[in-house]
Amino acid sequence: MKLARRTAHIDPFHVMELVKRAVALEHAGRSIIHLSIGEPDFTAPEPVVDALERAARAGHTQYTAAVGTARLREAIAADYRRRHGLQVDPSRVVVTAGASAALTLACCALVDPGDAVLMTDPSYPCNRHFVAAFDGLPQLVPVGADTRFQMSEALLRAHWGPNTRGTLLASPANPTGTSIPFDELGRIVAAVRELGGFTIVDEIYLGLSYAGTPRSALAYGDDVIVINSFSKYFSMTGWRLGWLVVPPALVPTFEKLAQNLFICASTLAQHAALACFDPASLAVCESRREAFRERRDYIVPAMRGLGFGAPVMPDGAFYAWLDCSRFGDSDALATRLLEEAGVSLVPGADFGRHEPQRWMRLSYATGLDQLQQAVERIGRTLGPG
Ligand SMILES: Cc1ncc(COP(=O)(O)O)c(C=O)c1O
Questions:
Q1: Atom of ligand 1 nearest to the CA of 99
Q2: Rounded to two decimals, what is the model's pTM?
Q3: First-to-last CA distance in the chain?
Q4: What is the four-CA torsion angle of 13, 216, 311, 210, rounded to 10 degrees?
Q5: Rounded to an integer, what is the distance from CA 183 to the centroid of its chain?
Q6: Which end of the chain is more exposed for a tag (fewer CB within 10 A), N or C?
Q7: Spatial separation of the C-alpha atoms in residues 347 and 50, rounded to whole Å
Q8: For residue 257, which phi and psi values (nearest 5 degrees)?
Q9: Protein residue with its CA nearest to atom 7 in ligand 1
Q10: CA-CA distance, 253 to 89, in Å (whole number)?
Q11: CA-CA distance, 134 to 240, in Å (whole number)?
Q12: For residue 286, is pLDDT > 80?
């Protein structure tokens, strides 16, 4: 059977082979510490679970409006007001099946065949593929420690070409755990506006920021498209619930695309998510944010002590982007650490093409005791730093 050409532009995750091997080792009785996981080790706050149960028993299971329930859209808008001091009209909020569906809708709405979209290298692997799924061209911008592994206005202008239609950013980012300095983000938005393009900012990790109060790109104008999710800050990955805030004029387009592509996001999850904004739930999420910060404060210096490079202190999410060049190629090192130390990390190859063999992603979405054990094991395998 002939497959669509676009499928050739979508890569599988390299790391899956490593994950399969880790699972096989575990089945054979080995203890494996997983520092490769891209989701919180916590689960949904208790009030959300209670709300889910109530919604299910009350039979709230029919489809909702494609853009989400009015109550959830209002609750999300109210949260921008309360926690960010931003006025967002609820009609601009489009509720989706996670940030993934939000990114799908945004690319479906904005990317024509042959359109280039600027994104950093390294970045979240699926970003390349959301663009490729609509026959667009992901245009990778190599970034380094000098820009905190992030886009800058200068890089954006230098890479903007005749086919470039916009940029897809994430702040804080996966795999680096770094944010775009807020002033710089403002300059990027202004430059894109001047160039007549679109700016999409994935703020899925914004709630997990460790340097001051998180600030949303929505502050820079109604024309910025912001994506967020209940997956990370609220520890609800499998609930499949997220949202976009889109410019007022684009709402009808996003609505008709959402109707046709997804019908709606999970109704039960939408009902339960209202409880995310209860003070009790927010208090739980804030204490988890502190737990992540504590883990970061332990793991980054500890990995530096073992001889890994961490030229930039990550300021968000639960990732550290580590330079492992001292120990050789990141693919070979990931295999060695798994086989010999029983610790799994993700080599750089999945995240881009810029020096992937030099970098590894460490996820600290696991308890401090596990992190300490991992450091001990890696130290024993690699010798003194
Ligand atoms: C940067 C980034 N964006 C989006 C997603 C997808 O999240 P969701 O579970 O909300 O679809 C992830 C998941 O790891 C991510 O790291």
A1: 10
A2: 0.97
A3: 53
A4: -100
A5: 21
A6: N
A7: 39
A8: -65, -45
A9: 99
A10: 17
A11: 22
A12: yes
Evaluate whether 171 touches 201 at the Cβ level (below 8 Å): yes
- How far apart are the C-alpha atoms of 379 and 150, rounded to whole Å? 30
Q: Show the CA angle centred on residue 131, arms to residues 136 and 349, nearest 5°.
A: 115
Mutation pick for ligand 1 pocket among 231, 235, 363 (CB with most ligand atoms within 8 Å) = 231
Query: What does the angle CA 293 – CA 296 – CA 299 come to, to the nearest 5 degrees?
Result: 150
C-alpha to C-alpha distances, 281 to 266, 267, 341, nearest whole angstrom: 20, 20, 37
Q: Is the pLDDT of residue 296 over 90?
A: yes
Paired tokens of 87 = 């006025």
Q: Which atom of ligand 1 is nearest to the CA of 102?
A: 11
Contact predicate 254/109, CB 8 Å: yes
> Strand ranges (DSSP E) for 232-344?
242-245, 319-323, 343-344
pLDDT, one tens digit per residue, over 132-144 is 999 999 999 999 9
Residue 13 DSSP symbol: P
Of 187, 174, 166, 40, residue with least CA distance to 110: 166
Q: What average pLDDT does the segment 86-92 reach?
A: 98
Q: Whose CA is nearest to atom 14 of ligand 1?
A: 38
Detail the DSSP E strand segments found in 41-182.
Answer: 93-96, 116-121, 137-142, 164-170
Question: How close is the Cα of 204 to the center of ligand 1, in Å?
Answer: 7
* pLDDT of res. 14: 81
How far does the centroid of ligand 1 lie from the alpha carbon of residue 340, in Å? 31
**Atom of ligand 1 at shortest distance to CA of 39?**
14
pLDDT in tens, 212-228: 889 999 999 999 999 99
- Ligand 1 contacts (CB < 6 A) are 38, 98-100, 124, 170, 174, 202, 204, 229, 231, 237, 242
pLDDT at site 145: 98
SS (HEC) of 186-240: HHHHHHHHHHCCEEEEECCCCCCECCCCCCCHHHHCCCCEEEEECCCCCCCHHHC
**Top mutation candidate among 36, 39, 76, 100 for ligand 1, by most atoms within 8 Å of CB:** 100
